[in-house]
Here is the input.
Amino acid sequence: MGELEDRRTAVSEARFESLLDTAADGVIVIDETGRMLVFNKICEQLFGYTSQEAIGQNVSLIMPPEFSVSHDRFMNNYHRTGERRIIGIGREVSGMHRDGTVFPLELSVGEAKTADGRQYIGVLRDLRSRRAVEQRVSQLQAQVVHMTRLSAMDEMGAAMAHELNQPLTALLLYLQAVARQVRACHADAKPPSDKMLDVLDKAVLEAERASHIVQRMRQMVEKRDPERATVDLREVVNEALDLSEFVAQGATVTIRRVFGMTPIQVDADATQIQQILLNLLRNAREVAKESEERWVKVSIGSDDRSAFVSVTDSGPGFSEDVGKSLFRTFSTTKKSGMGLGLAISRAIAQNHGGDLMADPGGNGQGATFTLMLPMHHSDEAEEDTWG
Amino acid sequence: MYIIVEDDPSVADALESLLSGAGLPVRVFASAEEFIHSASPAPDDTMIVDLGLPGMSGGELVRHLEKAGATPKVIAISGTSSRTIARETEGLADVKILRKPPAADWLEAITA
Here is the structure.
């Protein structure tokens, strides 16, 4: 290579660099092995690494761990099969800042065949601001619907407590009355009177009144035909998070989303699932609010058969005793009637063929509630990734 | 005389069974209005008033009696939260509260 050509190359490289650094989007170039060759100014801002730090490292550096592991595999797969999953298409992916923050990105990928082998050019756009606008719109749209949903659960709890109170009060008073009379008869060595039987009959009626109320609640939860559809659990959870965010406006609790890139298909009534999630999120926020770190982590995962959504808070966890009684109707450690919400939530989950489980945490660990739902089974499982 | 003002017929009847079973004289009213129209309490009466009465509430009834100078012993019963109870009984002198459902023997609590 001649001296002149060297200079030309240097000039064009300098132009290229300045072009990259004035670009409004993040630009990354990687080689066939995933090593970063170019990392422009916007990328430095997006990910918190300087270009010196980033260049030469694997691109997995700026991905959430759950994707970085598979990225190499998918690149190899592409090289082997030539099957394009992202090149020339572009899609929404997750990036990870140096501080661990995971955020949405729009990624377009181009491919260049160079003398040094294939290279890939990625153009990245931070979707957070767009997401914020979209969120505000959807929040407003959802506001009315959402308020109704939340308060329906609250009102149901309050109404049940109120309705059960009366028959229980009457029942206990009848039993106290009859117990006194039996004791009095016993003391006087007299046989029990018919009057006592009357009181006992009334007590039975009150117990039945109470159980009718419980049956009615059960019907509300179980008998309603759920509107089942195949949905992406991530979308359902995202919407619930947006709704919960809206309700908790001004709250200082950080929500950490740990989501995968792969759609997680479940057959479920999205509204009912969101009711469960809203209930869990509200409880978690309340606990987190009182803690030092003030965060709630929402993660989604799956295995062959089941999908999971876990809600963990930064609180102190709860004791084993509390854990045991947690799902009993009306058991609550707080004024908000959390027990009833959990009992209903679990009934909804089980009605979906899933379950709701609690890990009490403790020893510096917050409590985790996990909603499990069976996976939707289609004929072909699609894999959706960066590479 | 024990005067029960309670709108839930079962609770009123059960309370009456408990008190009259112990040989105590009892009268039952379903609302504050019904009571005001038909009786006025004597100082040695005990009134058992549900705070959550429809129409004139239990709290208002007790306030009304205090204003009228009647000073029976008052026991308030309620199935609502302690915060609601505190709000409803604010400014009332010397009201004993029994919460629904009963956690202890109400006859002892009422006659104590």
In short: The interface with chain B takes residues 161-162, 165-174, 176-178, 180-181, 195, 199, 202, 205-206, 209, 335 of chain A (CB under 8 Å).
